Amino acid sequence: MIKNIPNKYSQKLLLDMLDKHCIHCNEKIANGSDQILSSYDFVYLPIDFNNKCNVGYGFVNMTSPEATLRLYKAFHLQPWELFNSRKICEVTYARVQGLEALKEHFKNSKFPYEMEQYMPVVFSPARDGKELTEPFPIIAQNSKQ
């Protein structure tokens, strides 16, 4: 879970940030190394639909404990670079952990039809900054309002 996200951040900006982070981390890992690469397979940035701004936190599922630790070290207690925000990023564990648990938790969430760009999304294969898999929204067929 990422907290204290500036309210003007969009899902696209969050994905760009995560992609750059993964590229940076993965370039440090030498070819042929047995270290696990950084990648993520789930993102949800909750939005206040009235003002179309995020609510200040988001959920990201990194695909390994090593990738999670790298994300933590890179962003926890760091200032946000965009929007001259005074907020300080916090990276914490969320109550719901893991891709399957996140998919199950959010699958019955309700979203207005016109708000598809704000839904929780999965990536298969996982995104690592180079492999820019298209987001696939998680919604039940009957969950749209």
* Rg on CA atoms, Å: 15 Å
Q: Write out the strand line-up for the largest beta sheet, numbering strands in chain order.
A: 6-1-5-2-7-8
Give the SSE order as H and E letters: EHEEEEHEHEE
Contiguous helical run count: 3
Mean pLDDT value: 87
Summarize the biggest pleated sheet. 6 strands, antiparallel
What structural class do helix, strand and pairing data support? alpha+beta
3D architecture notes:
The protein is α+β, with helices and mostly antiparallel strands and 145 residues long. It has three helices and eight strands. A six-stranded antiparallel β-sheet has the order 6-1-5-2-7-8, with helices on both faces. It has a two-stranded antiparallel ribbon with strand order 3-4. The relative contact order is 0.24. Mean pLDDT is 87; it is low at 141-145.
